[in-house]
Amino acid sequence: MLGSTNGSSTSVWMDTASVPAFPPLQGDVEAQVCVIGAGIAGLTTAYLLSKEGRTVVLIDALGIGAGETGRTTAHMFPPDEWYAFIDERFGATHARLVADSYARAIDRVESIVREEGIGCEFERLDGYLYALPGNAFRDFDKEHASAVRAGVPAQLLPRVPGLAFDTGPCVRYPNQAQFHPLKYLDGLARAFVKNGGRIHGGTHAHRIRGDHQRQTVFTDSGQVHAGAVVVATHTPFNDRVVMHTKQAGYRTYVVGLRVPRGSVPRILLWDTGQPYYYVRLETPDGARDHDILIVGGADHKVGQDDHPEHRYDEIERWTRERFPMAQELAYRWSGEVMEPSDGPAYLGRNPMDDDNVYVITGDSGNGMTHCTIGAVLVTDLVMGRSNPWTALYDPSRKPVHGLADFAAEQANVMARYGDWLTGGDVDSVQEIAAGEGAVVRDGLRRIAVYRDPEGALHAVSAKCSHLGCAVHWNSAERSWDCPCHGSRFDTEGHVLHGPASLALDKVELSAEGLPPPRTQRGARRPVR
């Protein structure tokens, strides 16, 4: 079982694997490279650099896989913008680079699994894109042609084979992959340490300062001095504005249902609906008569659905309509994906720092693939090698190929600042049930209040420590989520997900659960 994590739900991976724990940083250390983030992006980068002979220190605010890697569905599949979209916006040359990077990412994971003997259930599978009747996307001829032109051995088929329902036309992408992400991270961590790497969990990085020769990572328990820094924290905390205007955070939801062993083909499945759904199978250790059918989707902007539990119900209903062999519900969990405004991820040198600070972000629902691509690319840059994917994934690129999406996301963000002009979720903290949270207005302030199962109240400022947007309650994960740039905080205000790097301010409540009275500006203090 995984220990500390960034939400209250439990994924099938967290329930069926253990990962090693590492002590927090104590004092200052020196390294050639400091990697921040112990998910698949950070651990793969650290591992590859250690193989190159670099001294590497890896730190994480929680621990191995405790962020989004433990909440993925862990399939390696074509880009969810699809090759026709990339071909149309970026051209055939870029589409070929995307196809090459995706194929090489799968090959790299497979080679690491084989070389390090990692038992993570890595499996090559066919993937299928389809559209049910009534969905908008029907131009599979165009997608098939673009994929083939990009070098993908795709096939156009009349339906997905082996399913209980007729999907209609589909595109088959052979030789994709899936695996158990936490078992993979367990093996990566052990291999990295064997190569001389150092890992520190429970070490929260909140600032990076330096120049083109030397950077210092400031944490709560010491400093890491390094010649290069890789920020692999899902979304970068070291960039206050620029990167966060070019991508948006979305919550995505997953259910896992038992199905009789062999009743669903071992494939990867993705549809084109609004909302869309994605499907894979997992066979838990020791399970002789059943598999877990994993189905995800029902995405929404972070912080823009206070009570999203209905999304689990919608996914389960969708699944049971198409997979009538589905039995009891075994898992429900959610995660966060970062959507770039123009499609490809942001992998490489951070645009707002010296040339020795790197970021891996913008997974767009392809986290296992993009993070591996990013680790390979960043390793090449740190080692001074050229990489053919550098320009394609350059974090400093302008969103000229996604201006409409960019404008829509910025309009959405600006509208959320209007929350400061509205009332609270409830008029009084007495209305907040045990295990729930709500925002209460106190004059010009908005206070985020959580009542724990024992009835005690926990209050923090509702002002996000990143850029001041008002946070909202997330009842599915019992967290405070920012609807502007995707930051998330626990019920005590501690950071669960960036770009925020500082906790929410504490607010003291009176015995009656009210904020203490404040002296009005300009009022005379009573004479004692």
What key attributes describe this structure?
528 residues; alpha+beta; FAD/NAD(P)-binding domain; D-Amino Acid Oxidase, Chain A, domain 2; Rieske Iron-sulfur Protein; 9-stranded mixed sheet; 8-stranded mixed sheet; 9 helices; 24 strands
Describe, in plain words, how this protein is organized in 3D.
The chain is of the alpha+beta class. It has three domains: 12-71 and 182-245 and 343-408, FAD/NAD(P)-binding domain; 79-176 and 251-332, D-Amino Acid Oxidase, Chain A, domain 2, CATH 3.30.9; 422-497, Rieske [2Fe-2S] iron-sulphur domain (Rieske Iron-sulfur Protein), CATH 2.102.10. It has nine helices and 24 strands. The radius of gyration is 23 Å and the shape is globular. Residues 519-528 have low confidence and may be disordered.
CATH class of the largest domain: Alpha Beta
Number of strands: 24
Structural class: alpha+beta
Return the domain count. Answer: 3
Computed CA radius of gyration, to the nearest angstrom: 23 Å
CATH superfamily caption of the largest domain: FAD/NAD(P)-binding domain
Query: Which CATH architecture of the largest domain?
Result: 3-Layer(bba) Sandwich
**Rounded average pLDDT:** 90
Short overview:
With 528 residues, this protein is an alpha+beta fold. The protein is 22% helix and 27% strand.
Protein topology:
Blueprint: H1 12-15, E1 29-36, H2 40-51, E2 56-59, E3 75-76, H3 82-90, H4 92-116, E4 123-130, H5 140-149, E5 155-157, E6 170-178, H6 181-194, E7 198-200, E8 205-210, E9 215-219, E10 222-231, E11 247-260, E12 268-271, E13 277-282, E14 290-301, H7 309-322, E15 329-340, E16 346-349, E17 357-361, H8 367-382, H9 403-416, E18 436-442, E19 445-451, E20 457-461, E21 472-474, E22 479-481, E23 488-489, E24 495-497
Parallel strand pairs: 1-2, 1-10, 2-7, 4-12, 10-17
Antiparallel strand pairs: 3-6, 4-6, 5-6, 8-9, 9-10, 11-14, 11-15, 12-13, 13-14, 16-17, 18-19, 19-20, 21-22, 22-23, 23-24
Helix pairs in contact: 2-6, 2-8, 3-4, 3-5, 4-8
